[in-house]
UniProtKB/TrEMBL annotation:
This is Prepilin peptidase. Residues 229-294 form the Prepilin type IV endopeptidase peptidase domain. The lineage of its organism: Bacteria, Pseudomonadati, Planctomycetota, Planctomycetia, Gemmatales. Residues 19-99 form the Prepilin peptidase A24 N-terminal domain. GO terms for biological process: signal peptide processing. It comes from Gemmata obscuriglobus.
Length: 391
């Protein structure tokens, strides 16, 4: 039987999934407490209705929830299904990340395919954990931001700025084209003013950070240096924030009400610190599509359970640094980031031309603006009918 040889892969998949469940459990605490400005560590987990502390064994991710069928052991109050979905979702997200980036090396980064049968041994070497934990942090930040936004219509800066800081630090420690040596960049012929030429573009080395700037890199921040990593992360964060702020008025002109908040800008800023500037830019577009799909799902669910939906939004206190919005864009935006990020190894090479050509980039920005305006106009229609009148 040769399955035994694959035991390390199975073992690490189970470990990573379990880690995801545990982090998901922690994210639930963040999601439940942060919007109320409560401490994350004190007091221990307790029932929101009777304030009885939740037993350690009942607090085991997923199993605790399922065993008591999502109810409080003391008073029988029903806990939100969100507790279960965030835990399972984080577990699945971590597993998917580990499969894609470590076991299958989805991005095709040289030397980043875990060879447990050969050179790497049964324990993945540090570079794999660095890559996985770095991106798992972003994934956790996106899940927390999306879930809080869905429930409270805010994206707390505590989540986005904290995670963004990890993104910048990781960028400094793993500068492009890490883990490839800086010499890998020498494959690009020098003195090219642009990287868009087909035969040259294919040779742009991939790293944990995507391609950094237009054309040749600056002498001040050579490839593989911490300055390059810092610039890459900071430019990514800046563009992520800017792209939301710039399109804010496009969207709101179409939507007629405030729909995009600075929290959405913070969400893409956070993603940009990890993924560079190209992915957040594109995520706005994929995020708008995802938000539209979610909106359709939401209206379907609304019709089936109007009371539950009403209760959850009425009991929400207005607190936090950002004013609540009518429509949560965060969940759609977070999905957009993940989709774009995972599609990047396929999308990236196809989009080298627009991303490395100024005129095309400008046209693309205009197109995205108009697209968002159209999407916003489309979303305006169902919202104009008072939902209480529908039933
Ligand atoms: Zn209770």
């Amino acid at each position: 039987m040769d399955w035994w040889f694959h035991f390390p892969a199975v073992f690490w998949c189970v470990t990573v999934f379990t880690l995801g469940l545990m982090i998901g459990s922690f994210l639930n605490v963040v999601i439940a407490r942060l919007p109320y400005e409560k401490s994350l560590v004190w007091p221990s987990s307790r029932c929101f209705a009777c304030y009885q502390p939740i037993r350690l064994t009942d607090n085991i991710p997923v199993l605790g929830f399922l065993r008591l069928r999502g109810r409080c052991r003391a008073c029988g109050a029903t806990f939100s299904a969100r507790y279960l979905w965030v835990e399972v979702g984080t577990g699945v997200a971590f597993l998917a990340l580990f499969l894609a980036e470590v076991l299958f090396n989805w991005s095709g980064i040289p030397g980043m395919k875990y060879n447990y049968l050969g050179a790497d041994g049964a324990f993945p070497p540090a570079r794999f954990w660095a890559l996985f934990l770095y991106h798992a942090t972003l994934m956790s930040g996106l899940i927390a931001a999306a879930a809080i936004d869905a429930e409270h219509r805010i994206i707390p800066a505590q989540v986005t700025y904290t995670v963004m800081t990890v993104g910048v630090i990781g960028g400094v420690l793993m500068p492009w084209p890490w883990p490839q040596p800086a010499a890998a960049v020498d494959a690009i012929p020098p003195h090219f003013t642009s990287w868009i030429l087909d035969d040259v573009a294919g040779k742009i080395p991939v790293g944990v950070q995507p391609w950094p700037f237009w054309g040749p890199t600056f002498d001040a921040a050579p490839p593989g240096s911490w300055k390059m990593g810092l610039l890459n992360s900071v430019i990514g964060a800046f563009v992520g924030s800017l792209v939301v702020r710039a399109t804010k008025w496009f969207f709101e002109t179409g939507f007629g009400r405030e729909a995009l908040g600075l929290g959405d800008a913070d969400l893409l800023m956070m993603a940009g610190a990890f993924l560079g500037w190209q992915i957040p830019m594109l995520s706005l577009f994929t995020g708008a599509v995802a938000a539209l799909v979610l909106k359709v799902f939401e209206s379907v669910c609304w019709n089936s359970a109007p009371a539950a939906r009403q209760g959850s939004s009425a009991g929400t206190p207005v607190s936090g640094p950002v004013q609540p919005r009518e429509l949560p864009f965060g969940p759609g935006l977070a999905i957009g980031v993940v989709v774009t990020w995972f599609a990047w190894p396929w999308l990236g090479p196809k989009l080298q031309f627009p991303f490395f050509d100024g005129t095309t980039m400008l046209m693309l920005c205009g197109f995205m603006g108009v697209g968002l305006l159209a999407a916003a106009l489309f979303m305006r229609r169902p919202a104009e009918t008072p939902l209480t009148a529908v039933k």
